[in-house]
Amino acid sequence: MNTWTTLKRVFVSGAKHFVRSGVVSAATVLVMTVTLAIIGSMIFVSAILSSTLHAIEDKVDVNVYFVTDADQADIDALATKLRQLPEVMTVTYTSSDQALAQFRERHANDQLTLQALDELGDNPLGASLAIKAKDPSQYQTIADLLTNDSALTEGSNSIIDRVNYYQNKTVIDRLSAAIDATERAGAGIVILFAIASAVIAIATIRIAIYASRDEIGVMRLVGASNWYIRGPFIVAGVMAGVLAALIALLLFYPATWYAGSSLENWLGGFNLFSYYIGNFALIFLALVGSGIVLGGVASFLAVRRYLKV
Known about the structure:
Layout: H1 3-20, H2 23-59, E1 62-66, H3 72-83, E2 88-94, H4 96-106, H5 111-120, E3 128-133, H6 139-147, E4 160-163, H7 165-211, H8 213-221, H9 226-263, H10 272-278, H11 280-306
Helix pairs in contact: 1-9, 2-7, 2-9, 2-11, 7-9, 7-11, 9-10, 9-11
Protein backbone atom coordinates (compact mmCIF):
# COMPACT_ATOMS: atom_id res chain seq x y z
CA MET A 1 0.00 0.00 0.00
CA ASN A 2 1.59 3.28 -1.15
CA THR A 3 1.80 6.44 0.91
CA TRP A 4 -0.93 8.30 -1.01
CA THR A 5 -3.42 5.45 -0.52
CA THR A 6 -2.55 5.30 3.18
CA LEU A 7 -3.04 9.04 3.63
CA LYS A 8 -6.33 8.89 1.75
CA ARG A 9 -7.60 6.13 4.04
CA VAL A 10 -6.50 8.04 7.13
CA PHE A 11 -8.38 11.15 5.99
CA VAL A 12 -11.49 9.19 5.03
CA SER A 13 -11.46 7.39 8.35
CA GLY A 14 -11.00 10.72 10.15
CA ALA A 15 -14.00 12.19 8.35
CA LYS A 16 -16.06 9.17 9.39
CA HIS A 17 -15.02 9.59 13.02
CA PHE A 18 -15.97 13.27 12.85
CA VAL A 19 -19.44 12.56 11.41
CA ARG A 20 -20.00 9.58 13.69
CA SER A 21 -19.43 11.70 16.79
CA GLY A 22 -22.50 13.75 15.86
CA VAL A 23 -23.61 16.08 18.64
CA VAL A 24 -20.23 16.02 20.38
CA SER A 25 -18.46 17.08 17.17
CA ALA A 26 -21.04 19.83 16.73
CA ALA A 27 -20.35 21.06 20.27
CA THR A 28 -16.61 21.07 19.56
CA VAL A 29 -17.13 23.08 16.37
CA LEU A 30 -19.41 25.51 18.20
CA VAL A 31 -16.92 26.26 20.98
CA MET A 32 -14.04 26.49 18.49
CA THR A 33 -16.12 28.87 16.38
CA VAL A 34 -16.60 31.13 19.39
CA THR A 35 -12.87 30.99 20.14
CA LEU A 36 -11.88 31.78 16.55
CA ALA A 37 -14.52 34.53 16.36
CA ILE A 38 -12.92 36.12 19.43
CA ILE A 39 -9.50 35.84 17.78
CA GLY A 40 -10.90 37.49 14.66
CA SER A 41 -12.61 40.18 16.73
CA MET A 42 -9.31 40.96 18.42
CA ILE A 43 -7.76 41.43 14.98
CA PHE A 44 -10.47 43.98 14.16
CA VAL A 45 -10.20 45.71 17.54
CA SER A 46 -6.43 45.97 17.16
CA ALA A 47 -6.87 47.48 13.67
CA ILE A 48 -9.42 50.00 14.96
CA LEU A 49 -7.24 51.06 17.88
CA SER A 50 -4.15 51.32 15.68
CA SER A 51 -6.10 53.41 13.16
CA THR A 52 -7.30 55.70 15.94
CA LEU A 53 -3.79 56.08 17.34
CA HIS A 54 -2.33 56.86 13.89
CA ALA A 55 -5.10 59.39 13.23
CA ILE A 56 -4.31 61.19 16.49
CA GLU A 57 -0.58 61.04 15.83
CA ASP A 58 -1.14 62.55 12.37
CA LYS A 59 -2.93 65.49 13.97
CA VAL A 60 -0.28 65.97 16.62
CA ASP A 61 2.56 68.41 16.11
CA VAL A 62 4.87 70.52 18.21
CA ASN A 63 3.59 74.07 18.45
CA VAL A 64 6.05 76.75 19.57
CA TYR A 65 4.36 79.95 20.76
CA PHE A 66 6.45 83.09 20.93
CA VAL A 67 6.14 86.08 23.23
CA THR A 68 4.41 89.05 21.63
CA ASP A 69 7.56 91.17 21.51
CA ALA A 70 9.71 88.47 19.90
CA ASP A 71 12.01 89.78 17.19
CA GLN A 72 11.05 88.50 13.73
CA ALA A 73 14.70 87.83 12.85
CA ASP A 74 15.06 85.53 15.87
CA ILE A 75 11.88 83.66 14.92
CA ASP A 76 13.09 83.22 11.34
CA ALA A 77 16.47 82.00 12.56
CA LEU A 78 14.87 79.40 14.83
CA ALA A 79 12.56 78.26 12.01
CA THR A 80 15.58 77.83 9.73
CA LYS A 81 17.44 75.78 12.34
CA LEU A 82 14.39 73.57 12.86
CA ARG A 83 13.98 72.91 9.14
CA GLN A 84 17.57 71.68 9.05
CA LEU A 85 16.91 68.98 11.67
CA PRO A 86 16.75 65.46 10.16
CA GLU A 87 13.73 64.65 12.37
CA VAL A 88 11.63 67.55 11.03
CA MET A 89 9.36 67.16 8.01
CA THR A 90 7.71 70.63 7.87
CA VAL A 91 7.74 73.89 9.80
CA THR A 92 4.72 76.17 9.32
CA TYR A 93 4.91 79.78 10.45
CA THR A 94 1.84 81.69 11.70
CA SER A 95 2.24 85.40 12.31
CA SER A 96 0.59 87.20 15.22
CA ASP A 97 -1.86 88.86 12.80
CA GLN A 98 -2.80 85.49 11.31
CA ALA A 99 -3.23 84.04 14.82
CA LEU A 100 -5.54 86.94 15.71
CA ALA A 101 -7.60 86.45 12.53
CA GLN A 102 -7.92 82.71 13.24
CA PHE A 103 -8.95 83.43 16.84
CA ARG A 104 -11.67 85.85 15.67
CA GLU A 105 -12.92 83.26 13.18
CA ARG A 106 -13.13 80.51 15.83
CA HIS A 107 -15.04 82.83 18.18
CA ALA A 108 -17.22 84.51 15.58
CA ASN A 109 -20.37 83.65 17.56
CA ASP A 110 -18.91 84.67 20.92
CA GLN A 111 -19.51 88.40 21.00
CA LEU A 112 -18.41 88.77 24.62
CA THR A 113 -14.97 87.35 23.85
CA LEU A 114 -14.60 89.51 20.74
CA GLN A 115 -15.65 92.60 22.66
CA ALA A 116 -13.06 91.88 25.36
CA LEU A 117 -10.45 91.41 22.63
CA ASP A 118 -11.33 94.77 21.05
CA GLU A 119 -11.04 96.50 24.41
CA LEU A 120 -7.44 95.29 24.75
CA GLY A 121 -6.45 97.36 21.77
CA ASP A 122 -3.15 95.59 21.08
CA ASN A 123 -2.89 92.08 19.67
CA PRO A 124 -2.34 89.75 22.69
CA LEU A 125 -1.35 86.78 20.52
CA GLY A 126 2.17 86.03 19.48
CA ALA A 127 3.52 84.27 16.40
CA SER A 128 3.94 80.51 16.37
CA LEU A 129 5.61 77.62 14.56
CA ALA A 130 3.87 74.29 13.89
CA ILE A 131 6.50 71.57 13.58
CA LYS A 132 5.64 68.25 11.93
CA ALA A 133 8.03 65.35 12.51
CA LYS A 134 8.82 62.62 10.00
CA ASP A 135 7.92 60.02 12.62
CA PRO A 136 5.73 60.46 15.75
CA SER A 137 8.46 58.93 17.91
CA GLN A 138 10.70 61.89 17.06
CA TYR A 139 8.48 64.55 18.65
CA GLN A 140 10.04 63.97 22.05
CA THR A 141 13.51 64.80 20.65
CA ILE A 142 12.22 67.98 18.98
CA ALA A 143 10.37 69.11 22.11
CA ASP A 144 13.43 68.49 24.26
CA LEU A 145 15.58 70.56 21.91
CA LEU A 146 13.12 73.43 22.16
CA THR A 147 12.77 73.40 25.93
CA ASN A 148 16.38 72.74 26.94
CA ASP A 149 19.43 74.92 26.63
CA SER A 150 21.06 73.53 23.50
CA ALA A 151 22.89 74.62 20.42
CA LEU A 152 19.59 74.72 18.58
CA THR A 153 17.90 77.33 20.73
CA GLU A 154 20.88 79.07 22.25
CA GLY A 155 20.24 82.77 22.35
CA SER A 156 16.58 82.30 21.41
CA ASN A 157 15.07 80.87 24.60
CA SER A 158 13.80 84.27 25.69
CA ILE A 159 11.46 84.57 22.72
CA ILE A 160 9.69 81.22 23.36
CA ASP A 161 6.56 81.53 25.48
CA ARG A 162 5.56 77.85 25.59
CA VAL A 163 5.71 74.51 23.75
CA ASN A 164 2.50 72.49 23.70
CA TYR A 165 3.80 69.02 22.83
CA TYR A 166 3.60 67.61 26.34
CA GLN A 167 -0.19 68.00 26.55
CA ASN A 168 -0.51 66.04 23.29
CA LYS A 169 1.99 63.46 24.50
CA THR A 170 -0.22 62.72 27.51
CA VAL A 171 -3.16 61.90 25.21
CA ILE A 172 -1.03 59.62 23.03
CA ASP A 173 0.50 57.83 26.02
CA ARG A 174 -2.94 57.21 27.54
CA LEU A 175 -4.30 55.88 24.26
CA SER A 176 -1.25 53.63 23.82
CA ALA A 177 -1.73 52.31 27.36
CA ALA A 178 -5.42 51.64 26.63
CA ILE A 179 -4.48 49.74 23.47
CA ASP A 180 -1.95 47.61 25.37
CA ALA A 181 -4.50 46.87 28.12
CA THR A 182 -7.16 45.92 25.56
CA GLU A 183 -4.79 43.60 23.72
CA ARG A 184 -3.74 41.91 26.99
CA ALA A 185 -7.37 41.44 28.03
CA GLY A 186 -8.22 40.08 24.59
CA ALA A 187 -5.30 37.64 24.73
CA GLY A 188 -6.53 36.43 28.13
CA ILE A 189 -10.05 35.85 26.81
CA VAL A 190 -8.69 33.99 23.76
CA ILE A 191 -6.58 31.74 25.99
CA LEU A 192 -9.58 30.90 28.19
CA PHE A 193 -11.77 29.95 25.22
CA ALA A 194 -8.89 28.05 23.60
CA ILE A 195 -8.57 25.95 26.75
CA ALA A 196 -12.33 25.34 26.76
CA SER A 197 -12.20 24.34 23.09
CA ALA A 198 -9.28 22.00 23.72
CA VAL A 199 -11.06 20.34 26.64
CA ILE A 200 -14.18 19.71 24.56
CA ALA A 201 -12.11 18.49 21.59
CA ILE A 202 -10.24 16.07 23.88
CA ALA A 203 -13.58 14.80 25.23
CA THR A 204 -14.81 14.32 21.66
CA ILE A 205 -11.75 12.29 20.68
CA ARG A 206 -12.05 10.22 23.85
CA ILE A 207 -15.64 9.32 22.98
CA ALA A 208 -14.60 8.53 19.40
CA ILE A 209 -11.80 6.28 20.65
CA TYR A 210 -14.20 4.42 22.93
CA ALA A 211 -16.74 3.99 20.12
CA SER A 212 -14.04 2.65 17.79
CA ARG A 213 -12.41 0.32 20.30
CA ASP A 214 -13.35 -2.82 18.33
CA GLU A 215 -12.05 -1.37 15.08
CA ILE A 216 -8.83 -0.30 16.81
CA GLY A 217 -8.42 -3.83 18.19
CA VAL A 218 -8.70 -5.33 14.70
CA MET A 219 -6.14 -2.86 13.33
CA ARG A 220 -3.74 -3.83 16.10
CA LEU A 221 -4.15 -7.53 15.22
CA VAL A 222 -3.36 -6.94 11.53
CA GLY A 223 -0.25 -4.93 12.44
CA ALA A 224 -1.37 -1.36 11.62
CA SER A 225 1.20 1.28 12.58
CA ASN A 226 0.65 3.63 15.48
CA TRP A 227 0.24 6.72 13.28
CA TYR A 228 -2.24 4.86 11.04
CA ILE A 229 -4.41 4.14 14.09
CA ARG A 230 -4.03 7.57 15.66
CA GLY A 231 -4.11 9.58 12.43
CA PRO A 232 -7.90 9.53 11.83
CA PHE A 233 -8.60 10.98 15.28
CA ILE A 234 -6.15 13.82 14.71
CA VAL A 235 -7.72 14.43 11.29
CA ALA A 236 -11.15 14.65 12.95
CA GLY A 237 -9.86 17.32 15.34
CA VAL A 238 -8.25 19.30 12.51
CA MET A 239 -11.50 19.08 10.54
CA ALA A 240 -13.39 20.55 13.50
CA GLY A 241 -10.91 23.44 13.65
CA VAL A 242 -11.07 24.16 9.91
CA LEU A 243 -14.89 23.99 9.87
CA ALA A 244 -15.05 26.35 12.86
CA ALA A 245 -12.71 28.81 11.10
CA LEU A 246 -14.83 28.77 7.93
CA ILE A 247 -18.00 29.39 9.95
CA ALA A 248 -16.33 32.30 11.76
CA LEU A 249 -15.20 33.80 8.44
CA LEU A 250 -18.73 33.50 7.04
CA LEU A 251 -20.18 35.19 10.14
CA PHE A 252 -17.70 38.05 9.88
CA TYR A 253 -18.90 38.93 6.36
CA PRO A 254 -22.40 40.21 7.27
CA ALA A 255 -21.21 41.45 10.67
CA THR A 256 -18.46 43.66 9.22
CA TRP A 257 -20.72 44.76 6.35
CA TYR A 258 -23.31 46.05 8.79
CA ALA A 259 -20.78 47.50 11.24
CA GLY A 260 -18.73 49.05 8.44
CA SER A 261 -21.52 51.36 7.25
CA SER A 262 -22.95 51.97 10.72
CA LEU A 263 -19.74 52.79 12.58
CA GLU A 264 -17.56 54.36 9.89
CA ASN A 265 -18.21 57.94 10.98
CA TRP A 266 -17.91 57.04 14.65
CA LEU A 267 -14.58 55.29 13.99
CA GLY A 268 -13.12 58.31 12.22
CA GLY A 269 -13.51 56.93 8.70
CA PHE A 270 -12.27 53.41 9.47
CA ASN A 271 -14.50 50.92 7.63
CA LEU A 272 -14.54 47.41 9.12
CA PHE A 273 -15.93 45.81 5.97
CA SER A 274 -13.28 47.39 3.75
CA TYR A 275 -10.62 46.22 6.19
CA TYR A 276 -12.09 42.69 6.19
CA ILE A 277 -12.16 42.49 2.39
CA GLY A 278 -8.77 44.13 1.95
CA ASN A 279 -7.09 41.85 4.50
CA PHE A 280 -9.16 38.74 3.89
CA ALA A 281 -6.18 36.57 2.97
CA LEU A 282 -4.36 37.38 6.21
CA ILE A 283 -7.50 36.96 8.33
CA PHE A 284 -8.27 33.68 6.55
CA LEU A 285 -4.77 32.34 7.25
CA ALA A 286 -4.90 33.52 10.87
CA LEU A 287 -8.24 31.86 11.63
CA VAL A 288 -7.76 28.67 9.63
CA GLY A 289 -4.22 28.32 10.97
CA SER A 290 -5.47 28.85 14.53
CA GLY A 291 -8.25 26.30 13.94
CA ILE A 292 -5.81 23.70 12.61
CA VAL A 293 -3.41 24.23 15.51
CA LEU A 294 -6.18 24.21 18.10
CA GLY A 295 -7.90 21.10 16.73
CA GLY A 296 -4.67 19.30 15.90
CA VAL A 297 -2.98 19.91 19.26
CA ALA A 298 -6.11 18.95 21.23
CA SER A 299 -6.50 15.74 19.20
CA PHE A 300 -2.82 14.88 19.56
CA LEU A 301 -3.02 15.29 23.32
CA ALA A 302 -6.18 13.15 23.41
CA VAL A 303 -4.75 10.22 21.45
CA ARG A 304 -1.56 10.27 23.52
CA ARG A 305 -3.62 10.20 26.69
CA TYR A 306 -6.40 7.77 25.79
CA LEU A 307 -5.19 5.73 22.83
CA LYS A 308 -2.49 3.31 23.91
CA VAL A 309 -1.12 1.50 20.87
